[in-house]
């Protein structure tokens, strides 16, 4: 399974399709379709070459640093060896392009939303590309390549990608179980009996409420904590779990029962009925399974990767809490909606004022070119 966590790196890159929403035709349909098709092609390519490599040469005779050149050299196909070696150089260039293409656009979109520094949304007047974001991302990539070896970079890429996909799965759950009207709404006080009734949706609500959304969010957080606990037990003990260790088995059984219970609680909550071109199927089962396996694969990585990952997370938190949380456009929109809701509750008529649209009108529309990324993210829920 540790190898599976590292091999996950091979599937990284298809998500750059989601950053091209403003350049795609009919993105609501074509982007989800392109992601699925690209994943199928990637799987078939890796499965095919792995099968050929394994059947042509036993695994214990292979060279992990250069498997295909070593294979063709072993069977004395020297011309093919050089063709493959030259092709690998071109593949590196393709991989570099695939990695560097989406990153400046992601930084640009985050800067446009105020999450990171505004300077990163600077656009070149002639090429209309995010020049500062491109230069910064290229510089950081070069520094990382100079400081770490290939294995460390693969592990860091894998753990970061696994975390990102875990967050996406959690976001699908959160967005599916709340409606747009609940965003930015004021908190409501509830009693313990009301919470208990909501756990089984005794009132049979057909639309999300503030309480049902809170129940889902809390359940998802507890689910992630229990998954981490199960992985903390399972990963070190997976090679010797048997009848000689009843305590380990009992602990895992309890955690599995709790995870199933949380799945049932989430399944009983009302979902948002908004009609979208593409919606993730089998919610909440599929996102919860994704959370479990992503966290399990993350626990398979070594401690050095976790240390570097922790430093990375601390830097990200510093940027967010020192800048992003105070300049977020989405945060301003939610705050404005909350103020409007409070005003209506107090009998003040503000129906002629749309804080979100007014805020957008005061901005340069060109700065919101990254918005389709978030449209796509919402559509995928």
TrEMBL record:
<comment type="similarity">
    <text>Belongs to the amino acid-polyamine-organocation (APC) superfamily. Cationic amino acid transporter (CAT) (TC 2.A.3.3) family.</text>
</comment>
<keyword id="KW-0812">Transmembrane</keyword>
<dbReference type="Pfam" id="PF13906">
    <property type="entry name" value="AA_permease_C"/>
</dbReference>
<dbReference type="GO" id="GO:0012505">
    <property type="term" value="C:endomembrane system"/>
</dbReference>
<dbReference type="Pfam" id="PF13520">
    <property type="entry name" value="AA_permease_2"/>
</dbReference>
<feature type="transmembrane region" description="Helical">
    <location>
        <begin position="80"/>
        <end position="108"/>
    </location>
</feature>
<keyword id="KW-1133">Transmembrane helix</keyword>
<feature type="domain" description="Cationic amino acid transporter C-terminal">
    <location>
        <begin position="278"/>
        <end position="328"/>
    </location>
</feature>
<dbReference type="GO" id="GO:0016020">
    <property type="term" value="C:membrane"/>
</dbReference>
<feature type="transmembrane region" description="Helical">
    <location>
        <begin position="214"/>
        <end position="235"/>
    </location>
</feature>
<keyword id="KW-0325">Glycoprotein</keyword>
<feature type="transmembrane region" description="Helical">
    <location>
        <begin position="129"/>
        <end position="150"/>
    </location>
</feature>
<feature type="transmembrane region" description="Helical">
    <location>
        <begin position="247"/>
        <end position="268"/>
    </location>
</feature>
<feature type="transmembrane region" description="Helical">
    <location>
        <begin position="33"/>
        <end position="60"/>
    </location>
</feature>
<keyword id="KW-0472">Membrane</keyword>
<dbReference type="InterPro" id="IPR002293">
    <property type="entry name" value="AA/rel_permease1"/>
</dbReference>
<feature type="transmembrane region" description="Helical">
    <location>
        <begin position="280"/>
        <end position="299"/>
    </location>
</feature>
<dbReference type="InterPro" id="IPR029485">
    <property type="entry name" value="CAT_C"/>
</dbReference>
<keyword id="KW-0813">Transport</keyword>
<protein>
    <submittedName>
        <fullName>AGAP010561-PA</fullName>
    </submittedName>
</protein>
<feature type="transmembrane region" description="Helical">
    <location>
        <begin position="305"/>
        <end position="323"/>
    </location>
</feature>
<feature type="transmembrane region" description="Helical">
    <location>
        <begin position="156"/>
        <end position="175"/>
    </location>
</feature>
<dbReference type="GO" id="GO:0022857">
    <property type="term" value="F:transmembrane transporter activity"/>
</dbReference>
């Amino acid at each position: 399974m540790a190898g599976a966590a590292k091999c996950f790196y091979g599937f990284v890159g298809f998500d750059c399709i989601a950053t091209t929403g403003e350049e795609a035709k009919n993105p609501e349909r074509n982007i989800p379709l392109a992601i699925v098709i690209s994943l199928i092609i990637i799987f078939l390519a890796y499965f095919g070459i792995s099968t050929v490599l394994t059947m042509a040469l036993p695994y214990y005779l292979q060279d992990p640093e250069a498997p295909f050149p070593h294979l063709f050299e072993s069977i004395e196909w020297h011309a093919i060896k050089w063709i493959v070696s030259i092709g690998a150089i071109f593949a590196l260039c393709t991989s570099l392009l695939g990695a560097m293409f989406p990153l400046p656009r992601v930084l640009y979109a985050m800067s446009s939303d105020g999450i990171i520094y505004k300077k990163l949304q600077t656009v070149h007047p002639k090429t209309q590309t995010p020049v500062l974001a491109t230069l910064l991302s290229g510089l950081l990539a070069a520094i990382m390549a100079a400081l770490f070896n290939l294995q460390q970079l693969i592990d860091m890429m894998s753990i970061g990608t696994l975390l990102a996909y875990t967050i996406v799965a959690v976001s699908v759950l959160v967005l599916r179980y709340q409606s747009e009207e609940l965003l930015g709404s004021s908190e409501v006080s509830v009693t313990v009996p009301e919470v208990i009734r909501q756990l089984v949706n005794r009132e049979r609500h057909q639309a999300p409420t503030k309480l049902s959304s809170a129940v889902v969010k809390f359940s998802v957080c507890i689910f992630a904590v229990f998954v981490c606990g199960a992985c903390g037990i399972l990963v070190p003990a997976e090679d010797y779990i048997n009848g000689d260790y009843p305590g380990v088995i009992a602990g895992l059984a309890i955690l599995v029962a709790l995870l199933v219970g949380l799945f049932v609680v989430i399944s009983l909550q009302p979902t948002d009925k908004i009609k979208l071109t593409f919606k993730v199927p089998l919610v909440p089962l599929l996102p919860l399974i994704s959370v479990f396996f992503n966290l399990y694969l993350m626990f398979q990585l070594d401690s050095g990767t976790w240390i570097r990952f922790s430093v990375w997370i601390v830097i990200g938190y510093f940027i967010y809490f020192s800048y992003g949380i105070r300049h977020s456009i989405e945060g301003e929109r939610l705050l404005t909606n909350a103020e409007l809701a409070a005003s209506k509750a107090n009998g003040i008529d503000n129906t002629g004022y749309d804080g979100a649209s007014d805020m957008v009108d005061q901005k340069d529309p060109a700065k919101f070119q990254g918005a389709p990324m978030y449209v796509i993210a919402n559509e995928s829920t």
